[in-house]
Specification:
Helices cover 50% and strands 6% of the residues. It is mostly helical and 167 residues long. The protein has a 3-stranded mixed sheet with strand order 1-3-2. It has helices at residues 17-27, 36-42, 46-50, 74-91, 96-99, 115-130, 143-165; strands spanning 33-35, 94-95, 108-112. Helix 4 (74-91) packs across helix 6 (115-130). The chain contains 7 helices and 3 strands. The longest helix is centred in the last third of the chain and has 23 residues, at 143-165. The chain is globular, with a radius of gyration of 15 Å.
Length: 167
């Protein structure tokens, strides 16, 4: 099954260290049907999105009591998670090996969501689209790279918005 998000995945979307950490999160899940609300809660993104404090917010998850990996930038996670949610909606499931052929994980998973949770994630993506220069991520990209990322995010946001409106 070809990735629906193939057009965007692996360049600026799905192409950073935070991506691999997010895939570790998905790979470490025991169940294959995941709720977006639980994912947002597990990685401590729900509060940051609700309080509009994504930029500079601490996003992490627990693998076990002694290991809590932290993401570099919450906006990376929002962008990648939006694309992965879109993949799950369009193809019904996500194959980790399609997202990262070198992954040590080989599981499939799907993400179910309420309209509210999907809108919460989408609002975080749209805030980045509308003011990308306000995010730390902009410091690591030149203007044309940032423009390309924002363009990709706009396309993902538009399709995701249509999907959510049909829920």
């Amino acid at each position: 099954m070809e990735l629906y998000i193939k057009k965007w995945w692996g360049n600026y979307v799905g192409g950073c260290d935070d991506t691999f950490l997010l895939l570790d999160y998905f790979g470490s899940q025991k169940q294959s049907n995941l709720e977006l609300s639980k994912i947002l809660s597990d990685i401590h993104l729900n509060t940051l999105l609700k309080e509009n404090s994504v930029n500079g917010g601490d996003v992490y998850f627990s693998i076990n009591e002694s290991y809590e990996p932290h993401f570099d930038m919450a906006i990376d996670v929002i962008i990648d998670l939006s694309a992965i949610l879109l993949e799950s909606i369009k193809n019904g499931k996500v194959d980790i090996k399609e997202l990262d052929p070198n992954s040590k994980y080989s599981n499939f998973f799907s993400i179910s969501t309420s309209k509210d949770d999907a809108m919460l994630l989408l609002s975080g993506l749209n805030k980045f689209i509308n003011a990308p220069q306000e995010y730390e991520l902009a410091d690591f990209m030149d203007e044309s790279e940032l423009e390309e990322l924002v363009g990709d995010c706009k396309e993902i946001s538009g399709i995701l918005t249509n999907c959510i409106s049909q829920m």
